[in-house]
Amino acid sequence: MIRVSRTVLPPLEEYVAYLEQLWDSAWVTNNGVLLRTLESRLAETLGVEHVVVVANGTLAIQLALRALELHGEVITTPFSYVATASSLVWEGCRPVFADIEADTLTLDPARAEALVTPATTGILATHVYGVPCDVEVLARLAERKGLRLVYDAAHAFGVRYRGRSLLTWGDASTLSFHATKLFHTVEGGAVVTANPSLAEAVRRLRSFGQTSPDVFVEPGINAKASEFHAAMGLCLLPRLPALIAGRREIAEIYDRGLTRLATPVERPRLRPGTDWNYAYYPLLLPDEGSVLRVQQRLRNAEVETRRYFYPSLSDLPYVSAAETPISRRAAARVLCLPLWPGLEPARAVAIAQLVVEELGAA
Ligand SMILES: *Cc1c(COP(=O)(O)O)cnc(C)c1O
């Protein structure tokens, strides 16, 4: 089976070299030297101020919401992975879904603005598939309305927009370093911010609200990342350019193969000035029926695809219903093809060919 994503692992000796350090020091968690090294290398590599690494990307969202004291209503996108919406609910906020832009599939700032009420405290938007949100307009909206702005940037690792890291926008951005993501620490995530006191608050919250051995200033949680996880990140980070280039190679094979379609399939639009990371290869097929047919056709050929992101989050059973027809329609039509560095080019050619056969060649 060709999986939709495949975890990248470094040469075992490199990881073992870090393990040897750990066996010497016997310091395996609690802000260890590997974690601190990873945090500073991430900040340097990405070109951002503060990176606070935590146990996973969901906790990163929760801690960012908590540290920014979001409560009441938070305007968010219905087109993302479930963790975006569920984290809001988990933190006691009410997700208010504004529909997305039909072309970029990111939160529509005009629709977001229309939903601002006196109870709104913030906006949580997702750079879905690494496609930048309309960050300039959202920044102005947040400023004008006095709202906090957080980006779920789980897909945006390494994306640059207008010459700088996409993660420099908003009060905070959150990353996921899950094994299926472009860069990973097995399980992990981070809060990225330019605000030093916010970074400090997240550091405190990830470790029981503790500031020194006997001082607990607020209720925190245990969201710490271990040295074993940090070691994986240290092994993979220098490979970032190769990881992105490897995905790009496959994506370009799909692009070429799919030019033979009788009717071109839509792809999410990247804003001008985006230096993308090829995090996913989503196709917007004509309708849900074609999604199911293409998915079955590929499954018969032992190729896994995924309906990232279905269902639309405004249809979750535990949120207040909202009419977000653009998101619902995108969720019904989207299908992601396998994309990982090291997928054999000939396989990618064959996958594109199957899609073309199912949908109709020119
Ligand atoms: C993967 C993902 C998360 C959750 O990250 P974990 O590290 O798996 O907890 C959150 N948001 C989005 C958009 C994601 O894709």
Helix-strand layout with pairing:
Layout: H1 12-25, H2 33-46, E1 50-54, H3 57-67, E2 73-76, H4 82-90, E3 94-97, H5 109-114, E4 120-126, H6 135-145, E5 148-152, E6 160-161, E7 164-165, E8 172-176, E9 189-193, H7 196-205, E10 210-212, E11 215-216, H8 227-236, H9 240-258, E12 274-275, E13 282-284, H10 288-300, H11 325-333, E14 334-336, H12 345-359
This protein binds pyridoxal-5'-phosphate.
What does this structure look like?
By secondary structure, the protein is an alpha/beta fold. The chain has two domains: 12-238, Type I PLP-dependent aspartate aminotransferase-like (Major domain) (Aspartate Aminotransferase, domain 2, 3-Layer(aba) Sandwich), CATH 3.40.640.10; 239-359, Alpha-Beta Complex (Aspartate Aminotransferase, domain 1). 39% of the residues lie in helices and 14% in strands. The chain has helices at 12-25, 33-46, 57-67, 82-90, 109-114, 135-145, 196-205, 227-236, 240-258, 288-300, 325-333, 345-359; strands at 50-54, 73-76, 94-97, 120-126, 148-152, 160-161, 164-165, 172-176, 189-193, 210-212, 215-216, 274-275, 282-284, 334-336. The strands form four sheets. The protein has a seven-stranded mixed β-sheet, sandwiched between helices. Helix 2 (33-46) runs parallel beside helix 8. The longest helix has 19 residues, at 240-258. The two termini are 29 Å apart.
